[in-house]
Amino acid sequence: MSQKIVITASMNKAAAETLPSVTYQWHWRRIATAMLFVCVLLVVLVYSLMGSVNAEQNDLSTDNMRQTSPQLKVEEAEPVIVEQSSTTLASDDDVIEVSEPPIVSTSDTDLPPMQGVNIVKDEPSVLSEPQIESQEIAEPSADTQLPSSNQESFAETAHIASVAIGAKIDTDKVSRAVLTRKVVEREPVNVFKADIRLTEFTDTLTFFSELKNLQGQSIRHIWRYDDQVMASIELKVTTPRYRTYSNKHILPEQIGYWRVDVVDEQEHLLAQKEFRILAD
């Protein structure tokens, strides 16, 4: 008896190896943010370049205007002040020299040679806001007379303060009054004391005064030597705070006692400085 053998074979195909799929995903928000940032940088750069070009053009136009119109100059930090011509009378021997400040032009009147040169410059203090002032320069009168040697005095209502040896001021109307070697950039340099030797300066002394609340009035610097008036300068005050100074040529033989008085229109003292010039 034969046996029937059935052999069943199961053939399974091996799963084909599949390669992993790669998917690219764009982060559009980050890309848009980066592009926006680059655009902003470009805009800022363009505006900065345009601003610098405009600033250079404005500077060039301002320089041209200043060259064509030297009598009208505007400064951002300071007002334009017109220098007031001064009249100085004394005896023969010296020559008047008036140097023109960079802000305004001056109007000079020829005067005969005189002793004791007085060079006067009127300069404004820095105000809180810039302003422009236009004023006609007054010619000094030809018949201006030197004041007499009478002793002026402070007003009864004056608040007098002794700020140094031989120096007095009315604090309501004067901030500073000093004798100095020279004035640089509207400020006194090397302030002198009561005793001065001839070797401490070169021919000329300078008296500097800073006034306040006297706009619209006139004041005078009076230089006296041994109670004799050597020079008198009349100045017009145009601003609430006003800086001015006068120069006096000193001869080698003029040693002894000197005094500089600052007086107002009522002949009241505003400031006074007494000093002595000593020989070498």
SSE diagram, text form:
Blueprint lengths: L27 H41 L49 E7 L28 E2 L5 E5 L2 E4 L3 E11 L2 E5 L3 E3 L6 E9 L5 E8 L2 E9 L4 E9 L6 E8 L4 E11 L2
Parallel strand pairs: 2-13, 7-13
Antiparallel strand pairs: 1-11, 3-4, 4-13, 5-6, 5-8, 8-11, 9-10, 9-12, 12-13
CATH class of the domain at 118-278: Mainly Beta
In terms of quaternary structure, the protein is: single chain
Structural class computed from helices and strand pairing: alpha+beta
Question: What is the CATH superfamily label of the domain at 118-278?
Answer: Macroglobulin (MG2) domain
Mind describing the biggest β-sheet?
8 strands, mixed
Number of strands: 13
CATH topology of the domain at 118-278: Immunoglobulin-like
- What is the molecular shape? rod-shaped
DSSP helical segment count: 1
Overall pLDDT confidence: 71
Q: What is the CA-based Rg, rounded?
A: 41 Å
Which parts are unreliable, with pLDDT below 50 for 5 consecutive residues or more?
69-149
